[in-house]
Write a structure and sequence with these properties.
heterodimer, A: 221 residues, mainly alpha, 8 helices, 2 strands, B: 451 residues, seven-stranded mixed β-sheet, five-stranded mixed β-sheet, 13 helices, 32% helix
C-alpha cells in the first residue's frame, strides 16, 4: 500500500495516482482491484441522431413536394411510413435479440398497419382490394402459422402461444370491418375468421398439459 | 446421454411465481441505457479459480430457487420462471455494473464475474435486495472454498449447498405483511416520493459508458467513535457527513430553495421478521433545507431524526400496505401489462423530472460470516448503480470490524468523495482508498496522465 501525501490517505491496489486528488504517487505493488479501463466509443446515440435528422428532413421535403408539385393523395404520409419501416425491420427484427415468435408478430403488426395506411391515404376506389383481400389473407395465414408452430411443438412453443392468441383476436378484425361496411368482400374476411376459430378450437381440443400450464401462467391475475 | 438429458428438461414444466409487489417497477424503469443493478464483491486472499467458481455456482443453484429464475411476462404482469439453463461465469468488465444482457447470461437475472482475487455478483434489483444478495454471495463463497479443499463450514450462518431450500426464503413478504387500510390512512406520501425538488448533482459525464468508483475501507470502531461525538448511529453519521460534503462542495455560497435529499433503503427484515431472499426493503428519505451556514452537526441531527421517524413500525406498516393496495385492486390487476407499462413509465418519468434525488445511501450493516471463512475472505464490498435520477450512490457495510464504503458516480468530478474521505481521515481514521479511474478512460484523455 502506498500513501498520498496531499490527502493523507493510504491507497490500495496498483494505482499510480491518488484516486481523490489525482496526484502522482509511488505505484502500488498489490493486486489490481479493477480491470484496466478501455475506451469504448461504441454508441448508438450518434447513429440515432443522424437517422432522425435525415428522416425529418426527407419527410419535410416529401411534404413540400407533395403539397406544391402535385394535387392528389397525401403520399408523403406513405413515404414517411416506409422510411420508418426499413429501420424497424433492420433494428427491431433482423438485428434484434428478441425471440423469433415476437419478431414475426411485430412484422405482422407493422405490415398490417402499413396496409391500412395505404388504404386510408389512397382511398377505397384504387386500393379497396387491400382491406378486402390482402389484410384478411395476411391475418388468416398468420393464425394458421402460429397454430402450426404450437401444434407441432416447436422447440419454444410457449413463446408462440401468447402471440398465437393475439393473432387469433386480430383474425376477427376483418369480419368486424365487414359488419361495419368498411370491407365489401365477405369471403376473405370469413376465411380469416374461420382460420382463427379453427386454431382456437384446436387449442381447446388438443391442448397438452404443458400448454394448459402455459395458458394458466400467461393469464394468471 | 445428451439426448436423454434434453428430453428430461423438455418434459419438465417450469415452475413460476409472480414478481413481488415492490419489484414490479424495476423491469419497467429499466431502459437501454440503464438497469437498476447492485453489485456485491468478495476479495479473497488468493486468485480465483474460474472453473471451481463455475462448479460452485452450479452446485448452489438448487439451494437458492428464487435466484434460479428468468424474467417472463404474463398478459397482466411480470413473472419469474424457473430457469433450466446453466448459470455462467464471466471475467469482470471494466464497465462496472454493465447492463446484464439476459440472452448472453442464459436468462439469469444476476451475473457472476471474477477478476484476479475478486468474486463479484451483479444483481438486477427485480430479483433481490442487498440482504438477499449477501446471503447468496455467502452461499457461493462457502461452496467455492469447500471445492478448493479448505476446512470451512456454514456454522449455522450460511446454509450448506445440499440442504433443502426453505419455502419462506422465496415468500413475498410485502404480501405477507399486507394489512388493509382506508386510503386516507395509508402513508401515501412516503411512496410517492420527495418533500420538494432535490438539488441534483451535476458534472461532466464520462465520454464512454461506465461508472466511476471510489471505495475506502477503514476500522469501523474509529468511525463509531466519531459518530458517538455527535450522539448518532453509524448510518446517521455517514448520511449526515454525505449531506455536509455535498453542501460544502456543491452548494455552500449558492443559496437556493432546493433540498439536499438522500434516499435510503431500509431493510424491513429488521422490523418485520422475515427470512425472504426476495426484495423486502422500503425507501425512506432524509431531506435538508439549504440555509446560509450549516455545520456537520446540523446534518447529522437531521439524519438521526429522519431515520428514527422513518423506521417507526406503524409508519412502515402503512407504507407496505400502500405498496400492496394498488396491486391488489381488481381493476389494476385486470389491466394488461402493456397498459401498466405505459402508465408506470410515464408516472416515474414525471416524478424523476419533478423531484429526483441528490444521492442514495445504502447501509446493509454488519455482515455476519462464519469464523472458518474469515481467513480466506479479506474484504466485502457493495456497489449501487447510479441512475438518471440518482447520480451518486454510496454503499456502506461492515465486515470483520472493517467499514467498506463505495461511491459510484455518473460524472468525472470526485469532489464530494474527496471531502468525505479527507474529513474522516483528518479526524483520525486510517482510510485505505481505491478507485477505478473511469474519468481517465475518456476519448479526450485516454492515455494522458492526470494533472
Amino acid at each position: 500500500m502506498t500513501k498520498c501525501d496531499f490527502c493523507g490517505i493510504l491507497i490500495r491496489g496498483d494505482a499510480e495516482y491518488c484516486p481523490l486528488c489525482h496526484e502522482k504517487i509511488v505505484k502500488g505493488t498489490d493486486f489490481p482491484l479493477y480491470p484496466p479501463n478501455t475506451v469504448n466509443n461504441k454508441s448508438r446515440t450518434g447513429f440515432n441522431r443522424i437517422f432522425w435528422f435525415l428522416y425529418v428532413l426527407a419527410l419535410a421535403v416529401c411534404f413540400v413536394v407533395n403539397r406544391l408539385a402535385t394535387s392528389g393523395p397525401e403520399w408523403w404520409l406513405l413515404a414517411g411510413a416506409f422510411m420508418l419501416y426499413v429501420p424497424l425491420l433492420i433494428r427491431n427484427t433482423i438485428m434484434s435479440k428478441i425471440d423469433t415468435a415476437r419478431k414475426i408478430f411485430n412484422q405482422i403488426v407493422y405490415v398490417a398497419l402499413i396496409l391500412i395506411l395505404v388504404r386510408l391515404v389512397l382511398g377505397s376506389e384504387s386500393t379497396g382490394w387491400i382491406l378486402d383481400y390482402v389484410l384478411p389473407i395476411l391475418l388468416g395465414a398468420s393464425s394458421l402459422f402460429y397454430g402450426c408452430m404450437v401444434a407441432f411443438g416447436v422447440k419454444k412453443f410457449h413463446t408462440y402461444i401468447i402471440y398465437e392468441l393475439g393473432i387469433i383476436v386480430f383474425g376477427a378484425i376483418p369480419i368486424l370491418l365487414y359488419l361495419f361496411k368498411v370491407i365489401t368482400e365477405l369471403i376473405p374476411s370469413l376465411v380469416s375468421a374461420m382460420a382463427s376459430f379453427a386454431v382456437l378450437l384446436s387449442n381447446v381440443f388438443f391442448v397438452s398439459k404443458e400448454m394448459r400450464e402455459e395458458i394458466k401462467k400467461k393469464f394468471h391475475m | 446421454l445428451i439426448k436423454e438429458a434434453s428430453t428430461v428438461v423438455k418434459e419438465k414444466i417450469a415452475r413460476w411465481f409472480e414478481v413481488d409487489n415492490s419489484a414490479f417497477i424495476y423491469p419497467i424503469t429499466a431502459s437501454k441505457g440503464e438497469q437498476n443493478l447492485f453489485k456485491l464483491s468478495a476479495e479473497l486472499t488468493e486468485e480465483v479459480d474460474p472453473e471451481l467458481l463455475s462448479l460452485a455456482l452450479s452446485d448452489i443453484m438448487p439451494r437458492f430457487p428464487s435466484f434460479n429464475v428468468k424474467l417472463g411476462r404474463s398478459f397482466f404482469s411480470y413473472i419469474f420462471e424457473e430457469n433450466f439453463e446453466k448459470p455462467l461465469v464471466f471475467t469482470e468488465s471494466d464497465v462496472i455494473m454493465r447492463m446484464i444482457d439476459f440472452k448472453e447470461n442464459n436468462g439469469f437475472l444476476f451475473r457472476t464475474t471474477y477478476f484476479r482475487h475478486i468474486i463479484s455478483l451483479e444483481f438486477f434489483h427485480v430479483l433481490t435486495d442487498g440482504a438477499g444478495g449477501l446471503e447468496f454471495l455467502k452461499g457461493l463463497l462457502l461452496r467455492y472454498l469447500q471445492l478448493k479443499g479448505y476446512p470451512v463450514n456454514g456454522e449455522n450462518i450460511i446454509p450448506e449447498y445440499n440442504s433443502p431450500p426453505l419455502a419462506e426464503e422465496s415468500e413475498d413478504s410485502f404480501s405477507a405483511y399486507y394489512r388493509r387500510y382506508k386510503i386516507k390512512d395509508l402513508n401515501l406520501k412516503s411512496v410517492t416520493g420527495s418533500q420538494g425538488q432535490s438539488f441534483i448533482l451535476n458534472g461532466m459525464p464520462f465520454d464512454t459508458e461506465g461508472t466511476g468508483i471510489i471505495n475506502f475501507q477503514t476500522d469501523v470502531r474509529e468511525i463509531l467513535r466519531q459518530a458517538k461525538q455527535y450522539g448518532a448511529t453509524l448510518t446517521a453519521y455517514l448520511t449526515g457527513l454525505l449531506m455536509y460534503s455535498i453542501y460544502r462542495v456543491k452548494v455552500m455560497g449558492m443559496p437556493q430553495k432546493k433540498l439536499i435529499q438522500i434516499f435510503m433503503p431500509i431493510n424491513l427484515r429488521k422490523i418485520f421478521p422475515s427470512v425472504t431472499l426476495r426484495n423486502f426493503t422500503f425507501m425512506t428519505k432524509v431531506s435538508a433545507k439549504i440555509v446560509e451556514k450549516q455545520e456537520l452537526k446540523d446534518f447529522v441531527d437531521i439524519a438521526s431524526e429522519a431515520l428514527k421517524s422513518g423506521v417507526s413500525k406503524d409508519k412502515l406498516q402503512r407504507s407496505i400496505s400502500a405498496v400492496c393496495q394498488a396491486e391488489k385492486n381488481f381493476f389494476i390487476r385486470i389491466a394488461p401489462l402493456a397498459l401498466k407499462y405505459v402508465v408506470i413509465k410515464a408516472i416515474t418519468a414525471i416524478m424523476v423530472s419533478r423531484s429526483g434525488q441528490t444521492a442514495t445511501l445504502t447501509s446493509p450493516g454488519i455482515i455476519p460470516m462464519p469464523e472458518s471463512l474469515k481467513p480466506y475472505v479479506a474484504h466485502i464490498n457493495m456497489f449501487l448503480f447510479p441512475g438518471r435520477s440518482t447520480r451518486l450512490t454510496v454503499s456502506a457495510l461492515t465486515y470483520n470490524n472493517e467499514l467498506s464504503c463505495t461511491f459510484c458516480r455518473r460524472f468525472m468530478d470526485t469532489e464530494v468523495e474527496k471531502f468525505f474521505i479527507r474529513y474522516l481521515s483528518v479526524n483520525g481514521a486510517e482510510v485505505r482508498v481505491s478507485g477505478n479511474f473511469r474519468e481517465l478512460a475518456t476519448k479526450n484523455t485516454a492515455g494522458m496522465e492526470p494533472v
